[in-house]
Amino acid sequence: MLLPLFFGLLIFAVYPSAYVLALSFTKSTLGQPFKSWVGWGNYRWLVAGADEIFTQSLLRAALFSLGVALVELWLGLWLALRLVSLRRGGRLVRSIMLLPLMTPPILVGVAWKLLLAPGGGLVNGKLLAWGLIDVPISFLGTQPWAMLSIMVADTWQWTPFVAILAYAALRQVPDDVIEAARLDGANQRAIFWQILLPLTAPLLLAIFVLRLIMAFKTFDLLYILTFGGPGDSTDMAGFSIWRMALRDFDVGTAAAETVLFAVCVSIVILPFLWLHRRVEERTL
Amino acid sequence: MTQQIEYRAGSSLSRRTLLAAAAAGAGALSLSPLLRSGAFAGQELNLTIIQPHAIAGEVLKKLFLEQAGVTLNFTVIPYDQVHSQATLDVQSGANHYDVHDYWYTSIGALVDDKVVVDVTDLIERDKDKVRPDDFIKSIYDAYTLVNGRRWGLPYDGDSHVLFFNTEILRRHGLEAPATWDAYYQAVKTITEKEKSEGIYGTALLGFKVPVIIVSSYANRLAGFGGKFLKDGQPDLVSEESVAAADELVRVAPYALPTPSETAFDQALPAFLSGKIAFLEFWTDLGVRAQDPNNSKIVDKWDVTQLPVGGGNKHPVAALDAGFGWAISAGSKKKDLAWEFVRWATSNQIGLKLLTTYNSGIDPTRNSTLNAAEYKSFAPKVQRAAAAAFGSALVWPTVPQAPKLLETLTEQLALILAGQIKPKAGLEAAQRTWERLLV
Questions:
Q1: Mean pLDDT on B23-45
Q2: CA closest to A244 among chain B residues
Q3: Which residues 356-395 of chain B have a CB within 8 Å of chain A?
Q4: Can you list the residues of chain A whose pLDDT is less than 50?
Q5: What CATH homologous superfamily does B160-318+400-436 map to?
């Protein structure tokens, strides 16, 4: 029974991981993988010798992911609470809410690039028309606007995903518990903080961790909106790895970056996995 | 003619005769006797081609089918992915492609990774057809020579020239600048006076991609008389190199907002709609600028060589972009592939592409550069191009070139964004280049 699972894991998890790990200790190009053994050379270069370019991109990815995951969790939860309280049209609203999620990521990037363009973009047009600015803002060409713009576009696209999952989590709470609380005189605020949130905390934390891991891998928005610029201020780990492998053609260093990236993601999500386990135990 | 061939498809001898007649009738002087005989008729060739050359591909496909009876299957690829596509095709064993469109700076890497075929002996054998002496000297070696051997033939000879809007300059009593300092003063004047109308002195192409931002830098480096490499070693911290980067930073505040975001899709519409006075661009922009379907500045523009700076008094063109055809090492039709490469880079086909609107092709041969047809098709551009190719700055073509250019792109982007001073950025690039070229 376990044999298919074993072979599946071997082919789709163990082999690729071992291949990447082995590559990371070699000098490899796109045309000549495993060209020569360099030991820890690639790692030493990334951590100590490359003017901190990759370590900074890891830090940016971590801050970006934590930021968007937190914002999307709260926004998504707020939307889910509105959905739960809807008496009519809930299904229609849920369908409309999913539209950003159904849009191909590349199109999301293109749409936001057009919206944020200094010349002819809708956002600058409105800000100028309302007299809030005198000259167009280069949202994608200056900091901190560039990183904020990517976060806004990401939030626009993924908040509905979080909202739908949070809605499902809220619907799991038995109605009679909430009814009993209302009969005891609890207002909406008290119901949320003392009943809904504690009961749905494990699920919400799971959604947060899921979104956090997904955010770490953000590539398409970056590629379209800023290409890592201005300068390297929006260059995040996933983009950096792609560039190293498919533009520098330094596959060995890209493999080392991948390993370091996986370590970084693990370090960031571990505390939240621990927290999830604790909260789950307390809820049960 | 095509219908007759289809009707008699069953008879290979008749088909060959028809094709031979068609080729002769079409004036296909560039066809070899082998192609003319119809030996390859009915076969197919798979090629990669960059997006900007898609129209050129359509022209080649039609002509090669008419003249040689061979179908060309082009896969259009973004120009910054054509190297990785070629390498992966051979390295993976797929070997789908027979001929690759390659950016000349990647020729060293393609040779090192054994992606392309040595054509030195073929060039020598077919010397009378290839006419290697006719290739523009500055282009021929840069695009094809690695370790003393030839690995492809040039078909798009790119260099930047300085386009300017004559109406805007006239309004301000300005002339085409001969130096980078005069250029800066002109750009500053125009922007300060007309920014409120949405008109700027220039669009500075600073998007974080080698062929864009490094071209902007290379134009200045060439003007100041600098080089990327000197005797095979990095030369990025010379006086000329730093001056070139300083020049880039100096003009940025007066350029179309925002240089870091400005790529072709921002700069071209701005120039063709009369919103900017200057644009450093490839010579084929001149053809587009005269096309009333694409341009609002027909007859309101002119072109000159790129300015000079510092101690350098003679204009030098930077060989920005530039493409050739190479035979894939994985091709099973290397003979036919060579016939195509030789035909597509011939004088006749080159002239056909040069005089086709939006083909994206620029001269690679002296005969096409100075041809009467090209002179009458694009007189202003021909004059500037003829002057440009006399002396040229070649980008690195060593096997490490892709990584060298990405590193330099990174530092130039940091410099343009104001995150690092020009000298510090170039020093960082120099350190990385030294490590890579060890």
A1: 72
A2: B403
A3: none
A4: none
A5: Periplasmic binding protein-like II (3.40.190.10)
